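Researcher: Let's do a round of design. I'm pasting the structure tokens now; please hold your answer until I've finished.
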């Protein structure tokens, strides 16, 4: 993959980025140019996410399929990585803003170099205001965050601790008079405290992909409607399983409580997973929506 780094002057910025008081003088970019008319959604969240956060991030992005929303994130481990990968799988353009320069040796985190190459191969881009060889430092991430908040028409927070860098991005978005969106989470979960606080302070709660489309003024069929259609076609046996796993359950527990043969339940679970209704992870089967 070609890591040819180009310098982008202000005339190549999307206009909303020029509106922020501390706009960068120039940017470095690898990959596709920035779309001046694009609809940019920044997605930020915890590096130490839960399975709930991962599932929600993937589901919300897949529900944007067919839209022209561009997914922006920071290439970090955790929610950032999930956002980029989900966008690629969904066919949405995605742009990464690392807290480092863009050379292969400097790119941070180094463990996400392969993801960076996937982003470029999918038609996305890597963007930074730092020189190509610049190594990430503690202060470079807040600097990067202001650009992510500035380029986006809306910032979506998916899991954030009470005190976290994620909330810095959300506050910057508020300062720039941009939409702040947050996914509500369990009140007992430390990784949801920041999101729940943002909602209390006026952020738009996001519980399905349609909520995001409405923020951008878009109306179209989405993954949510596709899944609803799939559910209407479920057999009675599949509906029983769907109702039973309102809380995540182990495969053994589902088999035990169903009273049906193991082979029959395994076949039903496989069919429901193929339809995109459920997912098995860490020994538990859970609904995707």
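Researcher: That's everything. Go ahead.
Model: Designed sequence:
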């Amino acid at each position: 993959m070609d890591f040819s780094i180009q310098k982008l002057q202000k005339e190549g910025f999307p206009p909303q980025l020029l509106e922020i008081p501390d706009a960068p003088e120039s940017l470095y970019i690898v990959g596709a140019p920035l779309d001046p008319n694009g609809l940019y959604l920044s997605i930020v969240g915890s590096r130490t996410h839960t399975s709930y956060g991962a599932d929600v991030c993937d589901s919300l992005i897949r529900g944007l399929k067919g839209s022209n929303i561009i997914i922006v994130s920071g290439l970090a481990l955790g929610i950032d990585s999930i956002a980029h990968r989900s966008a690629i799988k969904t066919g949405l353009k995605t742009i990464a803003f690392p807290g480092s320069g863009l050379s292969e040796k400097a790119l941070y985190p180094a463990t996400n170099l392969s993801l960076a190459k996937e982003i470029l191969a999918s038609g996305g881009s890597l963007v930074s205001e730092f020189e190509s060889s610049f190594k990430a430092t503690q202060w470079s991430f807040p600097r990067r965050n202001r650009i992510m908040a500035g380029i986006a028409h809306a910032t979506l927070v998916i899991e954030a601790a009470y005190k976290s860098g994620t909330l810095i991005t959300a506050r910057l978005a508020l300062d720039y008079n941009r939409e702040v969106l947050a996914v509500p989470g369990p009140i007992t979960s430390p990784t949801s405290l920041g999101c729940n606080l943002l909602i209390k302070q006026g952020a738009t709660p996001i519980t399905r992909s349609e909520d995001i489309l409405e923020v951008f003024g878009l109306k179209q069929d989405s993954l949510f409607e596709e899944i609803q259609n799939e559910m209407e076609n479920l057999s009675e046996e599949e509906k029983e399983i769907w109702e039973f796993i309102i809380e995540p359950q182990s495969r053994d527990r589902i088999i035990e409580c169903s009273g049906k043969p193991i082979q029959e339940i395994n076949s039903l679970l496989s069919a429901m997973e193929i339809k995109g209704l459920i997912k098995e992870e860490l020994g538990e089967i859970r609904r995707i929506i």
